[in-house]
Amino acid sequence: MKLGKILLSSILLIGTLSAEDIMQKSMSTMEQGMTKIQKGFLNNNVDLIKEGSMLVKEGNALFSDTKVIKEYLPADKKHMANVAANSSERIALDINVLELNLDNKAYLNAANAYSDMLNACSKCHAIVRKW
Ligand code: HEC
Q1: Which residue in 46, 64, 75, 124 has its CB near the most CB atoms, within 10 A?
Q2: Which fold has domain 2-128?
Q3: Which of 63, 88, 93, 125 to mutate to test the pocket of ligand 1 (most atoms within 8 A of CB)?
């Protein structure tokens, strides 16, 4: 019985730790990506924008599942898990719009997609951080 409890709590702890890693990995990857995209637009460096957009895509994919997102919402915000997950969906769509516009050399539209993406980051953070 005692051993069972210890085992169970270790499993729960490991579960929590790996979930934590996923969030942190996702956020730091997206942060790096957004920084590259911004630098790319400011310096007119399309390759840098593309590199950044790949990173954001990768990071966003790690943190897009509603169940995972819900784990990170404060208790009184858990009912907003769907709204938070919409931000992740919006980022995925914006990345597509950004890449399509880059291919068409429509840089202003691509830059707008970047701004929209940044808003989507803030929308989820506003829920998480009670801004
Ligand atoms: C679906 C929700 C959600 C979205 C979308 C989201 N984040 Fe986060 N972000 C979180 C959570 C949860 C945390 C951790 C709690 C906190 O920092 O308040 C976090 C924290 C962070 C942190 C601090 C990391 C740390 O270890 O403290 C950075 C940087 C970050 N996010 C970047 C981004 C960027 C860039 C985007 C958009 C491209 C983004 N996030 C979109 C939920 C989200």
Answers
A1: 124
A2: Four Helix Bundle (Hemerythrin (Met), subunit A) (1.20.120)
A3: 125
